[in-house]
């Protein structure tokens, strides 16, 4: 039975209410307190300021000092911008004018004292964690900095009657209180408009917009699916991307395959099949990166090689700093440029390509006409940025750890070696920083592989050692040595036991292996990470031993050969066809629930034969040397 008109009206009223709730909830999202909008022109890419009425600028007169006090992190950059939108002044240097110190989670009170060279923290300065600004915005009031939930780890609990810091208004109640009747004033039309858009909390007794209830901040509650959807939508709005409906490895990461996520043909294969145009039905997948031949020669002949190289450096920078959304944007742009047969010179030409938005089009034009990119040069212009990039090169240190070291006052590898508490892996990474940063010539990769192969086959002649990674793609050098260990008809347990209990100890006694950095033993396989050195060599090299059962060797070869873009394209293509591809195999009949959460693992179609996985997906066989995307 068709729904009645009344039912339809109720449905759309429900959608309006959902949007209204989303508007209010977005204000309370940590680090996502307002819709970010892109700036225009060629200015530094950042979150644009949102105009907040002066009467709502709750931080006016306050001076915030963030710790770490930089905007390298995209979430911290957004927190800083929103604090400024609500009237705060961002102080770049520590001084007597600071009223609040906002500390990232994971950093301690002692870290703050050490960085600021203080024996005791000033009593007139509020010390709070990163959630403080967004909570204040949520309740439209400067909250008391003495609340336990804002306390920085290691800081002493404040006294019950401790005064608030200077310049901070009292916050006896969190919500706006209805003024006395004699103090009430009629609201202007502009004020009513602001209220209807959620910028002002309607007071009790005031008329509400037709069809809507009062919009009030919600109390503390558990995060739910709507919060995640709101945060993702707001985070992606400032990028030249279309929204994608995925949250897992197989689709979110693969959005870099530009036409796969924004081509209308991807969404219409069934329609073309109905028309009987079978060749057209396959056209939607022809633009996937895995459908094209990519080797070193074809890449060198691309007319946009220089532009791609510069954009790749920006992509590498955003990857190191864990800027997820910009990483996706740059991957999309690079993938799109690789498919162009002509050189893209102007902004208008770039904008005509799916997957490239205004900001990136500006950058492409700048690279072509100036042979440089100011944003890339500015990415590491300050001494702090240089130090951060140095720390990111330490094995075992990601952006979180590198930022923490920087905030704790360390400025060199020597500082880390002599002063910082390091894990065993990080200490090796610091001491062998130079060794690990050197590329490994192809001939040397082969020598490392030969030594391991001899040791493996001495223990079991049927065991196989395959050199993977960039070596298998035919590159002249590699960042590390990836060795895939397998055996016909063997299980992962059998391979792992032989390697960990016999082969690895023997290679240590032989003097080939120098350090064990990590060992994983998960349901998707096992890995041993370490460092090795040739008998006549002086440099330690990073080496990974990857244990793969025979039943999964085909999928593992695809996964551990790469490159990254090619693999993402393969996995996205599988997802578009209702399948799932990972390092264990190709699966079909995968059931998914809300937000594409996997409800069932699916049925294994193929895992052993690499060529057969290509054939099932309809991808022409691409030998490893043709996967350099």
Describe the structure.
With 629 residues, the protein is of the alpha/beta class. Among the domains are: 1-161 and 189-199 and 224-238, Rossmann fold, CATH 3.40.50.10190; 440-548, Beta Polymerase, domain 2; 569-626, DNA polymerase, thumb domain (Beta Polymerase, domain 3). 41% of the residues lie in helices and 10% in strands. It has a five-stranded mixed β-sheet, sandwiched between helices. A four-stranded parallel β-sheet has the order 2-1-3-4, with helices on one face. Helix 1 crosses helix 4 and helix 21 (442-459) crosses helix 23. It starts with a helix and ends in a 12-residue tail after the last helix. Residues 18-45, 160-219 and 228-281 have low confidence and may be disordered.
Chain-wise SSE layout:
Layout: H1 5-28, E1 63-67, H2 74-85, E2 89-90, E3 100-103, H3 109-116, E4 126-129, H4 132-139, H5 189-196, H6 225-236, H7 258-262, H8 269-274, H9 278-281, H10 296-300, H11 305-320, H12 324-338, H13 347-351, H14 358-370, H15 374-379, H16 383-392, H17 399-407, H18 413-419, H19 424-431, H20 433-437, E5 440-441, H21 442-459, E6 464-467, H22 469-472, E7 477-478, E8 481-486, H23 492-510, E9 513-522, E10 525-532, E11 541-547, H24 553-561, H25 564-576, E12 580-581, E13 586-588, E14 603-606, H26 610-617
Parallel strand pairs: 1-2, 1-3, 3-4, 8-11
Antiparallel strand pairs: 5-7, 6-8, 9-10, 10-11, 12-13, 13-14
Helix pairs in contact: 1-4, 11-12, 16-17, 21-23
Question: Summed up, what is this model?
Answer:
Helix content is 41%, strand content 10%. The protein is α/β, with parallel strands linked by helices. Among the domains are: 1-161 and 189-199 and 224-238, 3-Layer(aba) Sandwich (Rossmann fold); 440-548, Beta Polymerase, domain 2; 569-626, DNA polymerase, thumb domain (Beta Polymerase, domain 3, 2-Layer Sandwich).
């Amino acid at each position: 039975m068709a729904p009645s008109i009344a039912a339809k009206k109720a449905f759309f009223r429900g959608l309006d209410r959902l949007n209204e709730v989303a508007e209010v909830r977005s204000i309370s999202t940590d680090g996502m307190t307002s819709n970010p909008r892109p700036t225009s022109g060629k200015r530094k890419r950042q979150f644009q300021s949102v105009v907040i009425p002066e009467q709502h600028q709750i931080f006016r007169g306050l001076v915030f000092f963030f710790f770490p006090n930089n905007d390298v992190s995209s979430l911290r950059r957004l927190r800083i911008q929103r604090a400024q939108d609500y009237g705060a002044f961002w102080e770049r240097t520590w001084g007597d004018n600071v009223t609040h110190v906002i500390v990232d989670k994971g950093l301690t009170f002692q870290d703050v004292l050490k960085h600021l060279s203080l024996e005791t923290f000033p009593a007139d300065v509020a010390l709070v964690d990163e959630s403080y600004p967004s909570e204040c915005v949520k309740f439209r009031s400067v909250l008391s900095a003495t609340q336990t939930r804002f306390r920085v780890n290691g800081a002493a609990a404040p006294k019950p009657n401790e005064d608030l810091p200077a310049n901070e208004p009292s916050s006896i109640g969190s919500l706006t209180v209805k003024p006395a009747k004699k103090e009430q004033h009629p609201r202007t039309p502009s004020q009513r408009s602001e209220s209807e858009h959620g910028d002002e909390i309607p007071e009790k007794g005031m008329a509400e917009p037709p069809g809507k209830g009062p919009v009030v901040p919600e109390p503390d509650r558990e995060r739910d699916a709507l919060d995640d959807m709101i945060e993702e939508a707001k985070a992606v709005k400032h990028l030249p991307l279309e929204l994608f409906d995925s949250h897992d490895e197989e689709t979110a990461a693969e959005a870099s395959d530009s036409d796969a996520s924004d081509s209308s043909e991807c969404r219409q294969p069934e329609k073309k099949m109905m028309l009987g145009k079978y060749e057209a039905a396959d056209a939607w997948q022809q633009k996937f990166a895995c459908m094209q031949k990519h080797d070193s020669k074809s890449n060198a002949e691309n007319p946009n090689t220089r532009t791609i190289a510069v954009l790749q450096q920006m992509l590498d920078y955003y990857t190191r700093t864990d800027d997820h959304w910009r990483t996706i944007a740059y991957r999309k742009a690079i993938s799109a440029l690789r498919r162009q047969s002509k050189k893209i010179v102007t902004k208008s030409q770039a904008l005509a390509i799916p997957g490239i938005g205004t900001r990136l089009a500006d950058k492409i034009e700048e690279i072509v006409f100036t042979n440089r990119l100011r944003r890339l040069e500015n990415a590491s212009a300050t001494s702090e940025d240089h130090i951060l990039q140095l720390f990111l090169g330490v094995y075992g240190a990601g952006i979180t750890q590198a930022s923490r070291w920087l905030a704790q006052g360390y400025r060199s590898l020597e500082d880390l070696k002599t002063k910082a508490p390091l894990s065993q892996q990080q200490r090796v990474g610091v001491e062998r920083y130079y060794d690990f940063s050197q590329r490994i010539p192809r001939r040397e990769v082969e020598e490392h592989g030969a030594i391991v192969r001899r040791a493996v086959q001495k223990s079991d002649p049927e065991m196989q050692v395959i050199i993977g990674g960039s070596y298998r793609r035919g590159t002249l050098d590699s960042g590390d040595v990836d060795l895939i260990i397998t055996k016909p008809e063997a299980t992962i347990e059998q391979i792992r036991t032989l390697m960990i209990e016999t082969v690895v100890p023997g290679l240590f006694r032989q003097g080939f292996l120098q350090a064990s950095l990590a060992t994983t033993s998960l349901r998707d396989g096992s890995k041993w990470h370490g460092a090795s050195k040739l008998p006549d060599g002086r440099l330690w090299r990073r080496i990974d031993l990857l244990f793969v059962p025979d039943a999964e060797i085909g999928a593992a070869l695809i996964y551990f050969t790469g490159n990254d873009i090619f693999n993402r394209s393969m996995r996205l293509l599988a997802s578009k066809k209702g399948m799932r591809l990972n390092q264990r195999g190709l699966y079909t009949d995968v059931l998914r629930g809300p937000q594409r959460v996997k409800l069932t693992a699916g049925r294994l179609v193929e895992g052993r034969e690499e060529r057969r996985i290509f054939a099932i997906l309809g991808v022409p066989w691409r030998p490893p040397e043709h996967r350099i995307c």
